[in-house]
Design goal:
The complex is a heterodimer of chains A (320) and B (172). The radius of gyration of chain A is 36 Å and the shape is rod-shaped. The two termini of chain A are 54 Å apart. Chain A has 320 residues and is of the alpha+beta class. Helices cover 50% and strands 20% of the residues of chain A. Chain A has 7 helices and 10 strands. Chain A has 2 domains: 140 residues, Beta-Lactamase; 141 residues, Dynein light chain 2a, cytoplasmic (Beta-Lactamase, 2-Layer Sandwich), CATH 3.30.450. Chain B is built from 5 helices and 5 strands, in the order αββαβββααα. With 172 residues, chain B is an alpha+beta fold. Helices cover 51% and strands 19% of the residues of chain B. Chain B is elongated and about 70 Å long. In chain B, strands 2-1-5-4-3 form a 5-stranded antiparallel beta sheet, sandwiched between helices. At the A-B interface, helix 6 and strand 8 of A face helix 2 and strand 3 of B. Strand 8 of chain A pairs antiparallel with strand 3 of chain B, so a sheet runs across the interface.
């Protein structure tokens, strides 16, 4: 790039300070606004009429400014010529990882002609690098020749790091929001089925007058419960119920049973009926003396069928 | 919670007359309740006595599982603070399996068909358990000397003397 320029950028304002101030905005404002501010401030700093900033391999600018509405009078053809030339300039800058002028590119005469009609003389492309690799480009269009120093490029590298981080953060934030929305839907779905399960347990409790009704996984993890709090360690109870059920089921298999899935532990005052639900859960009804214990088994069977449907729906909801 | 020591399975004072009595109790219980099989096992998984048909061809597995279930049931009964506790497993066409505690250290496992009311079996079982507990109590209270005297076993000295003579003859 020619260094025979007369424009002194920034009119004494330090570019390092400007970029430092700009980077502090990265976390304060949304990404689009941040990029807009960056390109506007840089165009202002260099006294450029038009500024555009490209990131990644995109052929469209992520931020643009037209300070004097220089392009307002362009017709469609001129607009296209300038946009195409600008995209090519940014592409070449990123490809070659060095500053370029628009006039150095081939087939840029149409764009230059259009720019001159708007009193904009030349276009300048500067690479925005991250760890030495061009990750973006800043294109500035000015009526006066612009001068760039190595320090300017270093400062732009600092800006590149911030922009790259912001892009990642923005991308991550979007993904996080999408994931959150998705999880939110799943949670609502999950909650709905869990409420139905609790409703079934409550109905069963009312029918059986049970002290407590517990639904656990066959691996003894807790799913839901209705009834009073039991005066002993419930996780201990769950493990005993699950372990006892599995061994009892195996015993039943040895004496020829294949489909029956119910175990009743009968105590002097309290009894526990354990019924398998949908091959994956156990319904435990802890009840005291009942006039017709057989009815409890019938109700347990009925509830197990209803619970199986809800558990099946719950199984479709994969939260993670 | 502490597991009870294995008393029945390792009790050397359970004499022949005791096992005979246990067999009688189980036999009467099986006839009265019309159940298919009655098994008495200790908590270590040893079969003490059996009446009725074989519940399965894999008897060793069956008994081991019963012993495991017995321990679980005991813990559950401790948790629910019940001194008497039983477990009933529905086995579909094969009927039901009823497991009941006998004292602290043994388990009565009964398989019965669906035709037999479980309440009837339970009533007879409770009586059988009461009698079995009496047998176990007597056995536990018996000292070693009394056990040997009651058993009428006198072969230990003569056998030991005979072995000693044979060894002397062999080695000089």
């Amino acid at each position: 790039m020619t260094e025979s320029t007369v424009k002194q950028p920034g009119q004494g304002v330090d570019l390092h300070r400007l970029i430092f101030d700009l980077t502090s905005r990265a976390t304060e404002v949304p990404f689009d606004q941040f990029v807009g501010e960056v390109v506007a401030k840089l165009a202002d700093f260099y006294g450029a009429s038009i500024g555009r900033i490209y990131l990644g391999n995109s052929q469209s600018p992520v931020g643009a400014v037209d300070r004097n509405d220089a392009m307002a009078g362009f017709d469609a053809q001129q607009n296209k010529a300038v946009a195409d030339a600008d995209a090519r300039l940014s592409f070449e800058v990123r490809k070659q990882n060095r500053p370029l002028k628009l006039s150095q590119l081939q087939q840029s005469s149409a764009a230059l002609g259009a720019l001159r009609t708007a009193n904009v003389g030349e276009g300048y492309g500067l690479p925005i690098t991250v760890h030495g690799k061009a990750k973006g480009a800043l294109c500035l269009y000015s009526s006066s020749p612009l001068k760039f120093t190595k320090d300017d490029l270093k400062s732009l590298q600092a800006l590149g790091n911030v922009l790259q981080g912001t892009v990642k953060q923005e991308d991550g934030s979007k993904r996080y929001l999408e994931d959150s929305r998705e999880n939110d839907k799943k949670l609502k779905h999950y909650k709905k089925h869990l409420q139905r399960i609790e409703q079934i347990l409550e109905e069963l409790r009312a029918l059986t007058m049970a002290r407590s009704i517990i639904l656990i996984e066959r691996t003894a993890e807790f799913i839901a419960k209705r009834g009073e709090d039991l005066p002993y360690d419930e996780s201990h109870l769950n493990v005993l119920l699950a372990g006892g059920y599995e061994s009892a089921k195996r015993l039943a298999g040895l004496v020829g049973s294949s489909d029956e899935r119910m175990v009743v532990h009968e105590g002097e005052e309290e009894s526990v009926l354990v019924k398998e639900v949908a091959d994956r859960a156990l319904l435990a009804i802890i009840y005291q003396d009942h006039d017709v214990p057989a009815l409890i088994a019938e109700w347990a069977n009925s509830a197990a069928d209803r619970l199986a449907e809800e558990l099946s729906a719950l199984g479709e909801v994969k939260l993670l | 919670m502490q597991a009870a020591g294995p008393k029945v399975g390792t009790n050397r004072f359970l004499l022949k007359k005791d096992t005979h009595q246990i067999g009688l109790i189980l036999g009467r219980f099986q006839e009265a309740s019309d159940c298919k099989t009655v098994l008495l096992i200790d908590e270590a998984g040893h079969l003490v006595s059996k009446k009725g048909q074989n519940p399965t061809r894999r008897e060793a597995t069956y008994i081991a599982l019963l012993a495991g279930t017995f321990q679980t049931t005991r813990r559950l009964s401790d948790l629910l603070a019940a001194s008497e506790f039983s477990s009933r497993v529905s086995c579909g066409e094969a009927g039901s399996l009823l497991m009941m505690q006998v004292g602290e250290t043994a388990l009565l496992a009964v398989t019965m068909s669906d035709d037999v009311p479980s309440s009837t079996v339970r009533t007879y079982a409770l009586e059988a358990i009461r009698r079995l507990e009496e047998v176990f109590k007597k056995a536990e209270a018996r000292s070693q000397e009394n056990a040997i005297a009651e058993s009428g076993w006198k072969g230990s000295d003569s056998f030991a003397n005979a072995v000693e003579q044979q060894l002397d003859a062999l080695f000089g």
